[in-house]
Fold this sequence. Notes:
Strand order of the largest sheet: 1-2
Structural class: mainly alpha
Strand content: under 5%
Number of strands: 4
Amino acid sequence: MTKDTEDLARATGSKAVTKLEFRGGAFGAAVPLLFFVIWAITTSVLQLSSEIGLVMGAVIGLTLGLLFSKSKWEDYAQGLFDGLAQPIGVIAMVAWFYAGMFAQVLQTGGLVEGLVWIGAITGLTGGLFVALTFLLAAVFSTAVGTGYGTTVAFCTLMYPAGIATEADPVMLFAAILAGAVFGDNLAPVSDTTIVSATTQNADVPGVVRSRFKYAIIAAIPTTLLFAIFGGGAAVSTDETARTAMLDSADPKGLLMLIPFALVLILALSGHHLITSLTWGIIVSIPLIVFLNLGAFSDIIRFNPDSDAIVEGALINGITGYINMAILILLIVGAAHLLRLGGTMNVITNALVKWIKTSIRKAEFAIWSIVALLNSAITINTAAEIAAAPFVKELGDKYRIHRYRRANMLDAVTSALGYIFPWGAPVLLGWSTIQMMQDTYDWLPVVAPTSVFPFVFQGWFLVIVMLVAALTGWGLRFEGENGEESKEPPSGD
């Protein structure tokens, strides 16, 4: 139970729940998340996915969990509310809203048309554009520290530009997710980086330095694969509309790279994500208005004849993610019920019995539990927090260095969080692309079930860490004073 949960419980006069009992034991506690995962996969395969449909799946799962509860239903409800109150979901939501507003403002200023112009005059089309998208997304996500925000921004800006320049839609979407993986794993200000370091009592700079080699080993083949297979000459789109977009390509839109660069500089200088994005928005607006890149009414306007009343890029950047915001809160709540029901403890105890004294088994167990939790808890930071105590317990027991176990925790979390079709960032990108059809009705929408095999950075990172666990490559132990040592301390 977090301090935030305790504070909320005191403020509302309710008592925070620390344990729940379920019919079926640990399995019963997992029912809400399991049902959601099955619902998400089934609707995706049947091509019936929708954001509100996924919300409904999460609600039904939570309702089934109530029926499995042996504890008082009031306690189950309070446990759910405790989970909803955790800051993880709220942080992600606010990041989406600000990143969405920033991306929509850049689009209003013509950055998409500017990127299309760059692709046309330089020959960076097809696979080369996809590879460039991966590299830019990697740089952006490393600077701003949010893979979710990167997914929103690049699906808004680079996806339509890439489709217009003959990029394969599936590979282009995968490249955006892969770039988000890179930054989520490596960025010093990423929530997963901070959580992985602090939960293992490690310093963030040391952790980032030690994990750089893993990220680069995965990124090199990822770039090459996107360059080779990213072309989409055979992709069927509305050729007339696509040609019209190519004709509308305008280098003036590249002026919007100024606020884009400002956000990068501020983020790399240590400013908070919200601060960086706010200044990006503030600088973008006068550039658009005074350089005639668009009208102020394109950014925000009042329309009494509209149901929304307030319209424009800023509003679009928020309203496009309302359903996803609801969904993430429900998933975080379901993950909290999983912990209250003891599912995590059951898995941990079983693995400890299997490991006994083997360092290799201990590292493989760390890899496995992090992968398992990320397959069920589709919000990567929430999954990382759930796995962190287990990773620390095993790390301390076998004297595995804190950098090593923080890297194992973060790499697998960052990778799998952007792979599974039911994962929040994949659904977020899919939702953003759907929203972009309002502007570019010829854009193809890539199903979450189509993209997951091609998020190469994620898959390579998972494989690299698995090989490291099985072979001991890069393994370091805790020295007498906390330093890295190739040999375990004497007596271990």
